[in-house]
Design goal:
The structure holds two protein chains of two kinds. By secondary structure, chain A is α/β, with parallel strands linked by helices. Chain A has a single domain, classed as Peroxisomal Thiolase, Chain A, domain 1 (3-Layer(aba) Sandwich). A nine-stranded mixed beta sheet of chain A has the order 3-2-4-7-1-8-12-11-10, sandwiched between helices. A two-stranded antiparallel ribbon of chain A has the order 5-6. In chain A, strand 11 and strand 12 form a beta hairpin. Chain A starts with a strand and ends with a strand. Classes of the chains: A alpha/beta, B mainly beta.
Chain lengths: ~375, ~140
């Protein structure tokens, strides 16, 4: 059984003091239901996740106590991708015809401060100041730049593009372009990454209504089909966040494995994709993820970025809604934001940030701690 | 004279004239790990032994922590006295890459591939005034 997305809804990302995270999730869910022309009582199941804004299943208190099974999903930054995959499998198995996927969050200001105990690491690791996601990302791109001769200018260009794209997206948090020099010369957070090259924890919510593909047209004239969806965790030898040590011999990370699996399911390749969203926790992540997802060879990124290929009008438009850099990262919602944006693009309804020439195939990728990735291939 | 206490038991040999990090070695697949674990992270075998890791290695990658982290970071510093610190992975030959604070803390002092060696030094003081010692790597 193929699966389609027939309803999409989003609560603007950023800071919304007047609404709780749960209320932002409900707001987005109501928009998604309306978009599909269905009611909450029509939903046969729900999957959802939030890291810091309470239990996603509490959405039923906002939307109505209908008795449906609603399962909480928690998988770090890959929570949204994992919720979507759960719903995909629930429909594909033939068990259900239609259901809701939800993701929302509301985080405190400042960098995440993780607890080593939750990951089975000694307290000394946090106490000595090594348990910082920002450090991992900085160290990964530092080595990558050394190996593949990528310049600091390219890091700044990725952030510059994100803020330009965000300025065209009414639901983005950061709506103002920032000059390249200002990005490059901003406060250094963790060498080589400045403050404008990192995304910030934020708030937002996304809802999606999924159904059996053969019934999709009943709900929406413009369904988007999930052609591939895969999730992978790390193998021994991949360089991951929160690792007090790592193997001498490196192997491909979970992104490479998830990407290959999703493309295989979809029966298409990276060259067929018209618009893509890649996890851009920071500028360097977008660069490395271009290659890890198969869209170029390692080391080709600088030339591609300089040529404009990754811009909205380019041949490989990446993070057309501004990505995490312009939208912030509410953990539970971020992977679904990518899917929301890709559906908009494939429906040709993205307005000022619409990719030209009527894109037909889209791609999303989330990566999170402690080394997990979720990927989708979406088709008009 | 205050007492020197290690930040965690079993992380490195202490007290010692010539301290070394302690790792585990899988007797089934040969993979090393740090810190010591009860099973192998590569194959899951519980047949692991403890060994001293090499004291010298090469810098694999690095960064500099530019702002004072929130808890669980726990040092003697205040926002006013905080100084950026280096963090890196050091490739210990025949064993594993270990993440560590670095004595060097400016980009000019650090280069991938440079030789580093282990040091153990006071990291903070505890409530009773004892010196809490931790490990770092410094350029040779």
């Amino acid at each position: 059984m193929d699966v389609a997305i027939v309803g999409i809804g989003i609560h603007p990302f950023g800071r919304t003091p007047e609404r709780t995270g749960l209320q932002q999730g409900a707001y987005a869910a109501r928009l998604a239901l309306k978009d599909a022309g269905v009611e909450w009582k029509d939903m046969q199941f729900g999957f959802g996740g939030s890291a810091s804004a309470g239990s996603a299943d509490a959405l039923v208190n906002e939307l109505g106590l209908t008795g449906l099974p609603f399962i909480n999903v928690a998988n770090g930054c890959a929570t949204g991708g994992s919720s979507l995959l759960s719903a995909y499998n629930a429909i594909k198995s033939g068990e259900y015809d239609i259901g809701l996927v939800s993701g929302f969050d509301k985080h405190d200001r400042g960098a995440f401060n993780a607890d080593p105990k939750e990951l089975g690491i000694g307290e000394w690791y946090g106490e000595t100041g090594m348990m910082m996601t920002t450090q991992f990302f900085a160290m990964k791109i530092q080595r990558y730049m050394d190996m593949y001769n990528i310049s600091k200018d390219t890091l700044a260009k990725v952030a510059e593009k994100a803020f330009i794209n965000g300025s065209k997206n009414p639901n983005a948090w950061r709506r103002d372009p920032i000059a390249l020099e200002e990005i490059a010369n901003a406060l250094m957070i963790s060498d080589p990454l400045t403050k404008y090259m990192f995304c910030a924890p934020g708030e937002g919510g996304v809802g999606l209504v999924l159904c059996r593909a053969d019934k999709a047209k009943q709900y929406n004239d413009n369904p988007i089909y999930l052609k591939g969806a895969a999730f992978r965790s790390r193998r021994y030898g991949s360089f991951e966040v929160f690792a007090p040590s790592q193997a001498l011999e490196q192997v491909d990370g979970p992104t490479v494995d998830a990407s290959k699996a999703a493309f295989e399911m979809a029966g298409v390749g990276p060259k067929d994709i018209d618009v893509l969203q890649l996890q851009d926790t920071e500028s360097g992540a977008e660069i490395m993820h271009m290659a890890e997802n198969g869209f170029c060879e390692h080391g080709e990124q600088e030339q591609l970025i300089n040529s404009g290929a990754t811009q909205i009008n380019g041949s490989m438009p990446i993070n057309t809604d501004g990505g995490c850099l312009a939208n912030g990262e509410p953990i539970g919602a971020t992977g679904l934001r990518q899917v929301y944006e890709t559906c908009l693009q494939l429906r040709h309804q993205a307005g000022d940030h619409q990719v030209p020439n009527e894109p037909q195939l889209g791609y999303t990728h989330v990566y999170g701690a402690p080394g997990i990735s979720a990927v989708t291939v979406l088709q008009r | 004279m205050s007492t020197q206490l290690p930040i965690a038991e079993g992380l490195f040999t202490w007290p010692s004239e010539n301290p070394a990090l302690l790792g585990s070695r899988c007797q089934s697949c040969g993979i090393a790990d740090f810190p010591v674990k009860k099973s192998c992270m590569a194959c899951g075998s519980e047949d692991v032994t403890t060994e001293e890791l090499p004291r010298r290695g090469k810098l694999w990658t690095w960064t500099i922590q530019g702002f004072m982290p929130k808890r669980p970071y726990k040092s003697d510093e205040t926002m006013e006295t905080f100084r950026p610190y280096g963090v890196g992975y050091v490739e210990l030959p025949g064993a594993i890459c270990v993440e560590s604070r670095l004595v060097e803390n400016t980009p000019e002092q650090l280069k991938i591939g440079m030789e580093m060696e282990l040091v153990v030094d006071t990291f903070r003081h505890d409530e009773d005034g004892n010196e809490v010692v931790s490990f770092a790597f410094k350029a040779v």
